Amino acid sequence: MHDAIVSVPPAVNEPMLGYAAGSPERTRLQAALAQIEREVIEIPCVVGGQRVTTGKIREVVMPHRHKHVVARFHAATEEVAERAILAALEARREWSAMRWEARAAILLRAAELLSTTWRMRLNAATMHGQSKTRAPGRDRRRVRAHRFLAVQRPVRRRALPRPAAVERRRVEHDRAPPARRLHVRADAFQLHRDPPATCRWPPR
């Protein structure tokens, strides 16, 4: 029987670095940019935790320097896509059966890696892979990902049940013929945009 008392740390915003000239974070970022420029990594498909190479190679180039290849990836085939769907469904079953404390630990660990070990690597990949300058590209996407991962666990623990009105729309959509589903989706979107008071978070 699980009787541990788990204390979840409060979610806080990740601090933004200044990257001023001569600062340690600027030096680390410049080193990460130079390392990515020297590399041409190979990206396989990952299905069920296994690396799958299809041989259908495509190139990833810098948008601002089209002749500079930063990676080559294996394009998925139909058979690989089918395997990935089955693997995702199996992973969903395992994840949904896992205790919330274990899931929170995984999300917190991912958030920690984004804010420490992989911080400059992710920033540099954003700048070279999407042609972002230091100002908008430095921490924005990493901080967004960190905030999502770190905030998910307390919100998930206190998640409210699905309101009956939304559940009825879902059942109606699944049973409706294709021509009718568009109207059902429109009704469901209206509920999502202006949900009942019992569905709002935080509760009022």
Kindly summarize this structure in a few lines.
With 204 residues, this protein is α+β, with helices and mostly antiparallel strands. The chain has helices spanning 24-38, 78-97, 100-115, 119-130, 134-137, 140-157, 164-175, 178-193, and strands at 41-43, 45-47, 50-52, 57-62, 65-74. A three-stranded mixed sheet has the order 1-5-4. A two-stranded antiparallel ribbon has the order 2-3.
Determine the structural class based on helices, strands and strand pairing.
alpha+beta
* Major beta-sheet overview: 3 strands, mixed
Mean pLDDT figure = 76
> Any idea what the CATH architecture of the largest domain is?
3-Layer(aba) Sandwich
> Could you please say which CATH topology of the largest domain applies here?
Aldehyde Dehydrogenase, Chain A, domain 1
Instruction: List how many beta strands DSSP finds.
Output: 5
Whole-angstrom Rg: 22 Å
| Residues in helices, as a percent range | 55-70%
What distance separates the N and C termini?
Answer: 35 Å
| Strand order in space, largest sheet | 1-5-4
CATH superfamily of the largest domain: Aldehyde Dehydrogenase, Chain A, domain 1
CATH C-level name of the largest domain: Alpha Beta
Number of domains: 2
